[in-house]
Amino acid sequence: MALGAMQHWLLRVTSLIDHAEREHPTREIVSAWADGSVTRTNWQEVARNARRMAQALEAGGVGRGERVATLAMNHARHLTAWYGACGMGGVVHTINPRLFPDQLTYIVNHAEDRVLLYDALFAPLVEKMKPHWPTIETYACFDPPAGWSGDVAFEEWLAPFDGDYRWAEGDERDPCGLCYTSGTTGNPKGVLYEHRSTILHAMAEVSPDVMGLSARSVALPIVPMFHANAWGLPWAAPIAGCKLVLSADYRPERMCALFRDEGVTHSAGVPTVWIEMIAFIERTGADLGPLEQVVIGGSAAPRAMIEWLRARGIAVGHAWGMTETSPIGTIGAPPANWGEMDEAAQVAFISRQGRVPFGVELRIVDDEGRVLPRDGEASGRLQIRGPWVVQRYFKAEEDAVDADGWFDTGDVAILHPDGTMQITDRSKDVIKSGGEWISSIELENAALGFPGVLEAAAIGIAHPKWDERPLLCVVRKPGAEVCPDALRAHLAGQVAKWWLPDAIEFVDDLPHTATGKISKKQLRERFTGYAFAGTEAMTGRD
Ligand code: ADP
Predict the structure, then answer these.
(1) What is the CA 31 to chain-centroid distance, rounded?
(2) DSSP 8-class letter at 63
(3) CA–CA separation, 518 vs 11, rounded Å?
(4) Ligand 1 mean position to 357 CA, how many Å?
(5) Of 276, 285, 430, whose CA–CA distance to 367 is shortest?
(6) Residues 224, 214: contact at Cβ < 8 Å?
(7) DSSP 29
């Protein structure tokens, strides 16, 4: 049969920046720098500078498909670098500066990065790592301070070029981005995004039930561009032509000032970020300006946090995703019967991880791979497939998916009849007690609803009779007292009796991963050899 007769336009990310340059040229991109200063540019200038950067890369001998790395926080030059690298047919590799030196050595060599663009903040790290990064030929610093005598400044590097450049052409399935997962076990694994997957993801992202971005939106991601592409916002923003506020500094006082001064309507970040923001606002009475919507993801959004934001008229989109899923997998947007739900039902709905946007599909399976029903009861291994889900890790010989394209996420979840997905746990964090599972997320959620609790993490501790029993670690709010018995009584009202932690430990802090999530792995290491007192009497299962 003959093909249809419509135009064949390749989905390449350069069309995103072309669109913003043409249709929203003067819409602002604001950068809040680490030194406290604020600078302003717009889509038109970002597009022009991206073309200059593409020229600089070509002049430097970087070839199509080669990797251009960044080690940087969020700002307009970093945004420019993404479009510049992809625009000349390269692949932008965002590196997480919080990784350990041996991981940094591994990923740069594995990626065979040719260029590294970095923030002055990371200059000491870069100097230390240079001998371990033989593939990098060009280093440039995004924001050299006065008196800098190091690598060439980004702006100087671009200075000889005029921006008279036509974007490289190629296939829509060419790679355009590379991001490594933090690799809690083994070496980090690279996810190689394509032009097409990135565009499809970005188009889904702007839609009303995902991030709901429009030309009127002002978006401030509090998620770094090296954490799963700042959740895709730098690719989605030019579609909507929204104003972007990029900050290299996430301290709550800076965030609140930006929210107010820049009129931020949309924001996104991991729960740890919002815990700090909320504590700051409660302490100082700062306000959040015209903020309308907050997307929380990366780890489970605690119910108390959702309630706090909603009480201030801010809608919460609870999102789930992974580096392997570009990253949006699901997000909670109001369903058709929202108006009939009372406050408690709405909060319960948002506490789940939401529904898939058009494009991806979910299922849960048991350990033998049998598909489980979407009945709100069965809990199983969560699998996902779709055009913005990984097929194979970078340079891997085998696919990361089964024959039907299903990628096993390593998460354990329930699918509800209304389509919402609820993460019970990561399979490696679930607490296995007496042959059954205790959801660490549920326990933490319940604890976070108790006054005086700032952060909470539940881990399984080896137990002679029950295999594992929960230990709850709690960080108190500054100056707050928390009575362990009262906390236990509060938990007893929210979770099954046999889920109650055998012990509660108050700690000064909890370990966090390179993306700001609580590191259960490190926490378990901290409590290696921990023994419960009077365990037998306290399990409550007999
Ligand atoms: P990593 O945390 O391993 O560096 P990712 O940032 O890709 O890598 O994290 C993906 C994982 O984060 C998911 O598999 C899931 O376990 C967890 N996660 C993400 N969003 C949520 C959420 N809303 N609720 C619970 N867990 C989440």
Answers:
(1) 20
(2) P
(3) 37
(4) 18
(5) 430
(6) no
(7) E
Q: How far is 219 from 42, CA to CA, in rounded Å?
A: 14
Distance 387 CA to ligand 1 centre (A): 19
pLDDT interval class at 534 (50, 70, 90) = low
- Quick: pLDDT tens for 231-277: 999 999 999 999 999 999 999 999 999 999 999 999 999 999 999 99
User: Which one of 193, 411, 420 would you pick to mutate in the ligand 1 pocket, going by the greatest count of ligand atoms within 8 A of its CB?
Assistant: 411
* Percent of the chain whose pLDDT exceeds 90: 92
pLDDT tens digits, one per residue of 338-366 = 999 999 999 999 999 999 999 999 999 99
Collapsed DSSP state (helix, strand, coil) of residue 268: strand
Q: Whose CA is nearest to atom 19 of ligand 1?
A: 298
Backbone angles phi, psi at 104, to 5 degrees: -65, -40
Tell me the catalytic residues. Answer: 181, 324, 432, 437
**Contact between residue 444 and residue 456 where contact means Cβ atoms under 8 Å apart:** yes
CA of 117 to the centre of ligand 1 (A): 27
* Helix, strand, coil percentages, rounded to 5, for the chain: 30, 25, 45
Tokens of 274: 């919002």
Q: Which has more confidence, 100 or 315?
A: 315
In the block, which residue shows the tokens 């590191």? 519
Rg (alpha carbons) of the chain, rounded to whole number = 24
Sequence-separated (6 or more) residues with CB below 8 Å from residue 258: 30, 32, 220, 245, 247, 264
Q: Got the DSSP string for 494-536?
A: TS-GGGS-SEEEE-S---B-TTSSB-HHHHHHHTTT---TTHH
pTM above 0.85, yes or no: yes
Question: For residue 326, how many C-alpha atoms fall within 13 Å in the half-sphere facing its CB?
Answer: 34
Cα 195–Cα 356–Cα 427 angle in degrees, nearest 5: 95
Residue with tokens 């938990």: 491
Is 537's pLDDT higher than 60? no
Cα gap 434→108, rounded to integer Å: 44
CB-based pocket (< 6 A), ligand 1: 181-182, 228, 297-300, 318-323, 353, 409-411, 423, 426, 513, 515, 517
* Structure tokens given for 324: 């392997």
